[in-house]
Amino acid sequence: DAGVIQSPRHEVTEMGQEVTLRCKPISGHDYLFWYRQTMMRGLELLIYFNNNVPIDDSGMPEDRFSAKMPNASFSTLKIQPSEPRDSAVYFCASSFHSTSTDTQYFGPGTRLTVL
Amino acid sequence: GNSVTQMEGPVTLSEEAFLTINCTYTATGYPSLFWYVQYPGEGLQLLLKATKADDKGSNKGFEATYRKETTSFHLEKGSVQVSDSAVYFCAQNGGATNKLIFGTGTLLAVQP
């Protein structure tokens, strides 16, 4: 398996622009997670899905952020409008089943820079 | 609430030195505990895990024991290599979900 795939790997945009990050989970995994990593706040869970349905979005910072999972093999995280404080590395992760011990497999991340 | 606290880095060691990275947690339930490693420019990878008290997780020479009495899960390795240089994250799942709570990460730099 190719692992979790994220695109783009790097994104540079200007304040106010819309940004869309993409994720393809590992085939057969039914949980998908979006994280944000910054120096100041470390790793934060933004939202996660089970069987394409959002389960917990309490970590989404504000209404400018939205996430979708239209099918089992694709998810997007959208920021509109983007702000400089959104600059971070965004990770997608997936796992199989819902037991508390299951491993989450992370993608390589998207480094977002908002100017 | 549930949280994870790990020692701040960076930790700088010479090759073949002994490594300890401290991690403690607070939890309302009985969490599973994890160590993840992040190599430069990559995503996180699971290094090891333990699901109940007194369990020992191990992988690639690294070990950590789930200590309920001290709410700790310290990472150890007897002899580090340059290739172990990375950021190490301790994490827990709060006891009932696979919603992970991470520590702030500890940068390990191993010098030849």
Describe this structure in words.
With 115 residues, chain A is mostly beta strands. Helices cover 0% and strands 54% of the residues of chain A. Chain A is built from no helices and 11 strands. Chain A has strands spanning 5-7, 10-13, 19-24, 31-38, 42-50, 53-56, 65-71, 74-79, 88-95, 105-106, 110-114. In chain A, strands 2, 4, 5, 6, 9, 10 and 11 form a 7-stranded mixed sheet that branches. Chain A is globular and about 40 Å long. Chain B is mostly beta strands. Chain B has strands at 3-6, 11-14, 19-21, 23-26, 33-38, 44-50, 56-59, 62-65, 75-77, 86-92, 101-102, 106-111. In chain B, strands 2, 5, 6, 10, 11 and 12 form a 6-stranded mixed sheet that branches. In chain B, a hairpin with an 8-residue loop joins β10 and β11 (101-102). The radius of gyration of chain B is 13 Å and the shape is globular. Chain B starts with a strand and ends with a strand. The model of chain B has no long low-confidence stretch (mean pLDDT 92). The interface between A and B is medium-sized, with 23 and 24 residues.
Label this structure with key terms:
heterodimer; A: mainly beta; 0% helix; 54% strand; globular; B: 112 residues; mainly beta
**Helix and strand run of chain B:** EEEEEEEEEEEE
The helix-and-strand class of chain A reads: mainly beta
Distance between the termini of chain B: 41 Å
Largest interface: A-B, 23 and 24 residues
Large-scale geometry of chain B: globular
Stretches of chain B where pLDDT is under 50 for at least 5 consecutive residues are: none
Low-confidence residue ranges of chain A: none
The number of distinct helices of chain B, counting runs of at least 4 residues, comes to 0
Kindly report the oligomeric state of this protein. heterodimer
